[in-house]
Design brief:
With 835 residues, the chain is mostly helical. Helices cover 58% and strands 4% of the residues.
């Protein structure tokens, strides 16, 4: 039975009350992911004008002759039409209304100002003579009636001029008023604008008086600033007074007000009318007229006809065909995305059944389609299509999954962004070519900096496709150079985007990439350092298994990095009770001497569950955690099972020995890499127990062990074929023979060997326990002399599982073993002694 995954992932952290094994592969969640992806991509597609045909200026019309089914106008290019409207608006003259009542009021105010000025001069002359307070008050009252102040010098000049004139100050002021009246009337007749000239850059102004309109040159009319100066310049002022021009200027500024008032409503109406009069079309296509012929080059004129035809179709039947348009887009997206989904369903079942990975794929596709949507919405003339970072998505697919998923994902993205760009074949080709090269450059990535080595290949992919399409369209070299510049920016930013998103996806979705595995394979990892310190024998055993697993995985095309790292961590649970495992045992005493076989089996099997818990605490990825329970599968802990059978038979116990109590909890290996580690673990143990190592004995031991695991059904779920098993056997044989090769004996070693042969008492003969097998089979011994049967349903004496039980005093258990599982110290029975 296929085992359920025990790993805690992102969804479980977000919703602790849900069973993650149900959500992980729920068909309902898969449907929701697919529906959300399709709907969001559909919303990014443009309106119909870019859907039916794909054409660009300078290209060749590859479809059949297009005949107009109805008459329609040839519309101008949008940018050209807007330029003409702006020119029409600039040609409208600003409208000003002439107010004659203001002119009359201004001319009437000049005599009053002159009289007040004469009264003020008379009062000042009297005050200067008498210096009385009353005269001072009279002067101040008269000066206050003036609309402007005068300085002391101006009062002095004005008094001197008034006294020199016949008739005194009153007559002089009256003469001044008459002089200024004439020039002021001339200024008002020409017109004074109610705004500064710097605010209007027009050549003419339109002056309206009732129903009459007069167009005046802009330089002829005055603004409030220059009207007074122009009027004084044309006046016959008396030459005697020094400060008289400044006094006259103040009088004119006070008297003259603008009589030409800007009419914004009429001006805007004139602008709107002028813009509306700009023709929208430049010609007309009659019904049944050929719009463009097959193999014709798409010129500016042809393109305008095609654009106008598409818009005319929309205007004629937009409401009637709108639902057809969206249904068509929906089917378009479903076909493209569905093809990718079919590939995952048929050839990448593990990805298809993992909703977290499907969500990740959907997010990457949405990211690229959103880039395409932004470039379309920007509506720029620059080739921003080359800023759609498709290579970033391709590299992410290749690193997170594999190069085949990356290629199919790149094809899917290329088709989708081409649809969003109006079925643009060019953007599809360039994105597909550059993305595929980017994916292939990271297919065997070994470090994160290798991502940036893809820059050159991405740019090469874009450059070749851009040059090919540009030459085909006869584009100029400036356009090609601009496109290459944008492609260079893409090739620079795509690796940067890949690097940043990869770290994000690894953390959020708990994705295990080859880069993560390579980091975990570093012996300086804290967990591996602890394993080396607390269980050095297990550590070296794991390193050897890593070498065997990597070579075997390479031989069948499996993930060699995953197999090696899984082998490194497969026995981390042994560091919690290292003294119960023979490879970590120092000295002749064994803790299992005082334990019953069932308790010993429980301790041996506990390194699996404890290893999974320890791996979770240290944050090991799910792929690595799977190796811990799967490398033993549901195999039998045969040594203690046979020992329990022997004790039960010797004591004539009525209770039966339950085989299930002596099996590992499983599950069986679920992947090729886990199956390889299981075989490597079993083969390494069986070959280490060989007394005589030759190529023949090694090959025989490896082959027998692989056949045994196959016959037990432990490899039913890991997809290893018979051809794979043969190649795995050859890879194991090559590595193990290199480890167990014979060495040259030195003279003293040969002499010692001769003495041992002549004197049997000098030979080492450790006691051995051999159970009566239920079925015949070879006896495999471990390096400590322990033996197990070669039964089809048993596991040979693995030094990582079976404990040496040498003669000697029993060691008191300190591992918290229950009293009911402790027993007498038992010596292994002598096979030569009759029972």
């Amino acid at each position: 039975m296929k085992a359920e995954t025990e790993n805690i992932s992102l969804l479980e952290r977000l919703a602790p009350g849900l069973r993650i094994d149900r959500l992980k592969s729920s068909p309902i969640v898969q449907i929701l992911i697919a529906a959300a992806l399709v709907i969001l991509v559909v919303l990014m597609f443009p309106h119909p004008e870019s859907i039916e045909y794909n054409y660009s200026l300078g290209g060749i019309w590859a479809d059949k002759d297009m005949i107009a089914p109805f008459s329609f106008p040839i519309l101008k290019d949008v940018q050209q039409y807007e330029r003409e409207r702006q020119e029409a608006a600039r040609g409208v003259y600003p409208v000003f209304d002439r107010h004659e009542e203001i002119e009359r009021a201004d001319l009437d105010s000049l005599p009053a100002i002159a009289r007040n000025l004469g009264n003020a001069v008379t009062a000042r002359i009297r005050w200067r003579k008498t210096r009385s307070q009353q005269d001072s008050l009279d002067f101040e009252s008269a000066a206050a009636r003036l609309p402007f102040p005068l300085s002391e010098n101006e009062w002095r000049d004005l008094i001197q001029w008034s006294l020199a004139e016949k008739g005194g100050p009153a007559e002089a002021s009256s003469n001044l008023g008459r002089i200024l009246m004439k020039s002021a009337a001339e200024a008002l007749r020409i017109g004074i604008l109610d705004q500064q000239k710097t605010h209007r850059l027009r050549s003419y102004v339109s002056v309206r008086k009732g129903v009459m309109e007069e167009v005046l040159p802009y330089e002829r009319v005055y603004d409030p600033g220059d009207a007074a100066a122009a009027a004084i310049a044309k006046s016959d002022l008396p030459p005697g007074a020094k400060g008289f021009p400044s006094i006259a200027s103040k009088i004119m500024r006070a008297a003259l007000r603008p009589n030409l008032v800007y009419n914004s409503l009429e001006t805007n109406r004139e602008i709107d009318e002028a813009q509306d009069n700009v023709p929208r079309s430049i010609g007309f296509v009659q019904e049944n007229e050929r719009i463009i012929g097959r193999h014709d080059r798409i010129t500016e004129e042809n393109k305008q006809k095609l654009d106008s035809f598409e818009k005319a179709k929309i205007e004629r039947g937009a409401e009637a065909t709108d639902w057809k348009h969206w249904v068509g887009i929906f089917l378009h997206v479903v076909l493209v995305v569905g093809l990718f989904g079919i590939y995952l369903y048929l050839f990448r079942k593990r990805i298809y059944e993992d909703n977290a990975k499907l969500t990740l794929i959907g997010l990457i596709i949405l990211m690229e389609t959103f880039f395409a949507y932004l470039t379309s919405a920007a509506n720029l003339s620059e080739p921003v299509d080359y800023l759609i970072f498709v290579p970033a998505a391709s590299m992410l697919f290749a690193i997170i999954f594999d190069s085949r998923v990356a290629f199919y994902g790149t094809v899917t993205i290329a088709f989708l962004i081409a649809g969003i760009k109006g079925n643009d074949y060019a953007v599809a080709l360039t994105s597909l070519f550059a993305g595929a090269l980017g994916a292939y450059t990271v297919r065997d990535i070994r470090n994160r900096t290798q991502i940036f080595r893809s820059l050159m290949f991405i740019f090469l992919g874009y450059s070749l496709s851009i040059v090919a399409l540009s030459f085909e369209r006869n584009e100029n070299f400036n356009a090609i150079l601009t496109s290459l510049t944008y492609a260079m920016a893409n090739s620079i930013f795509s690796p940067v985007l890949t690097y940043g998103l990869l770290i994000f996806f690894e953390r959020v979705f708990r994705v295990t990439t080859d880069l993560t595995l390579l980091e975990l394979s570093d012996f300086n990892q804290p967990l591996l350092r602890q394993l080396a310190e607390k269980a050095p024998g297990t550590f070296h055993h794991s390193m050897l298994l890593g070498t065997l697993a990597e070579a075997a995985a390479d031989s069948i095309g499996a993930n060699s990095i995953l197999a090696r790292v899984g082998a490194y961590y497969h026995d981390i649970g042994k560091m919690l009770k290292p003294e119960y495992f023979v490879e970590n045992q120092v000295g002749p005493v064994n803790r299992h001497n005082r334990l019953k076989p069932r308790m010993s089996a429980r301790i041996i099997a506990s390194h699996v569950t404890e290893g999974v818990e320890l791996g979770r605490e240290w944050g090991l990825p799910a792929k690595i955690l799977d190796f811990i329970p799967q490398h033993h599968g549901t195999t039998l802990i045969s040594y203690f099972y046979d020992k329990a059978l022997h004790q039960a038979a010797r004591k004539n116990a009525k209770e039966t020995v339950a085989e299930q109590d002596y099996r590992y909890p499983g599950p069986k290996p679920q992947s090729k890499e886990a199956g390889i580690v299981m075989l490597a673990d079993s083969v390494e143990a069986s070959t280490r127990a060989l007394t005589e190592v030759t190529p023949q004995s090694l090959e025989s031991a490896i082959q027998n062990m692989i056949k045994q695991r196959f016959a037990e059904g432990q490899l039913d779920y890991c997809e290893l074929t018979l051809r794979d098993l043969t190649r795995i056997k050859d890879a194991f044989l090559k590595i193990l023979f290199g480890i167990h090769h014979q060495r040259i004996q030195y003279p003293e070693q040969r002499e010692e060997a001769g003495l041992r042969k002549a004197d049997p008492a000098r030979r080492d003969a450790p006691p051995a326990f051999v159970s009566a097998p239920s079925r015949p089979g070879p006896v495999l011994r471990d390096e400590a002399g322990q033996a197990g049967t070669g039964r089809a349903d048993s596991t040979p004496a693995d030094p990582g599982e079976l404990e040496a039980i040498p003669d000697g005093p029993a060691l008191r258990d300190t591992a918290g073993i229950p009293d009911d599982e402790a027993g007498e110290s038992t010596e292994p029975p002598n096979p030569d002694k009759p029972e």
